Amino acid sequence: MLPRTLRAASLVATAATVATVALQGQISVAAAAPVANATSVPAQYQLASVCPNPIVVQTDWYPEADHSELYELASPNGQVNTDNKWYTAPLIAQGYNTGVKIQIRIGGPAIGDQLVSAELYENTNILLGYVGTDQAIQLSATQPTVAVVAPRLESALGKQNIKVLYYNGAPYMAYLIGKGILKQSQVDGSFDGTPARWVASGGQIAQQGFATADPYQYQYTIKQWLKPIAFQLVSALGYNPYGDSLATLPANVTKYAACFKKLVPIIQQAQVDYASNPVPADTLIAKLVSKYNDGWDYTTNAAAYAAKAQVKDGIIANGPDGVLGDFNLARVNTLIKSLSPIYAKEGKTPKAGLTAQDIVTNQFIDTGIHLPA
Question: What is the spatial distance between Cα 137 and Cα 140, in angstroms, rounded to a whole number?
Fold first, then answer.
């Protein structure tokens, strides 16, 4: 495993056999059976006249189930750029070709472990990126972003209550220390994502991890361990950001309003579809991991575990109002109130007078989209 920043889970796949052809750093991933493409596309799925093409989305890690809605939308008939770590494919909504492509860019080591917020400002052709509401609060004065949809209700981040290894810069740690839940002397920010120190300690330390991935990996794929592990969600300790919300630059909310009006409901529905049948996305994710071949070990079995965990643990879920993907403004404001003095103490003072409406918006949400009861 490699280090990763805060975020949370997801997948896409077909039973079709996949063939690959390498050409100047590009790999074409072609399914044996093409994705359905209607001759008459309903208006709500026609994106070519209102959206950029391709729609570029920056993730915060390698392909995994925590990015399910993106791979649910991406056709398996796409191009893999193994140099830049990008996957570009037709954007398919409910079986219809929307007329634009989606380009999914991987994060973490592929972008020098830079925060997604910073990447949005450096590369303004990126329309959306995974920016947790905690990160949005922290950077609200210097690199503001506005999230337009929350594909996951909760973050998959977990921890245990002993010596704690974490990835330096993770926003949640400032909260845990600032609230006195952990002591400064108890934490160690040198975690590099590998299992070596955990294994060497005999499991007597805790480390940052994700409930959608680490329990499976430690029990089934990390050969030095191969035993179950326990975990605790940080949300149980009062830290409750929208960990994988899709955000954009503030100016884009107006500039691409017509695009978001159609695209956001498409993303919402993709997550509903994924929750009911994750196999197609899982398959694509696992195949892309093998193509990038960067040391990230993520199989279809790991993705299947994550898909079940996301639904079982309420990570992919409807909000209190019964809608999938919208933001509870009171929840965001509570987070702002909790984190602002903590970040200010660290010299990262949020924007003066910051409110939920500064960093999230529900204006593009389709309130009729939800997981079935």
Answer: 5
Give the Cα separation of 6 and 204 in Å (integer). 23
The answer to whether 289 and 63 have CB atoms below 8 angstroms apart is yes
Distances, alpha carbon 25 to alpha carbons 18, 255, 327, in Å? 18, 33, 40
* Same domain assignment for residues 123 and 183: no
CB 311 within 8 A of CB 10: no
d(CA 290, CA 298): 8
* C-alpha span between 207 and 4 (Å, rounded): 12
Q: CB-side exposure of 92: number of CA atoms within 13 Å? A: 23
Give residue-wise pLDDT tens across range 236-258: 777 889 988 999 999 999 999 99
User: 338 and 202 in one domain?
Assistant: no
Contact between 162 and 125 (Cβ < 8 Å): no
Give the separation between CA 43 and CA 195, rounded to whole angstroms: 49
- pLDDT for 3 equals 37
Look up the domain containing 126 and give its range.
18-153+242-359
| Distance of alpha carbon 251 from alpha carbon 267, whole angstroms | 21
Task: Name the amino acid, one letter, at 94.
Answer: Q
- Is 309 within 8 Å of 211 (Cβ atoms)? yes
- In this predicted structure, the answer to whether residue 340 has a pLDDT above a threshold of 70 is yes
Please say which residue of 237, 256, 276 terminates a domain.
237
- Here the tokens at position 143 are 């690199």
Residue 172's identity, in one-letter code, is Y
pLDDT band at 157 (very low <50, low <70, confident <90, very high): low
Q: Which of 237, 261, 294 is the last residue of a domain?
A: 237
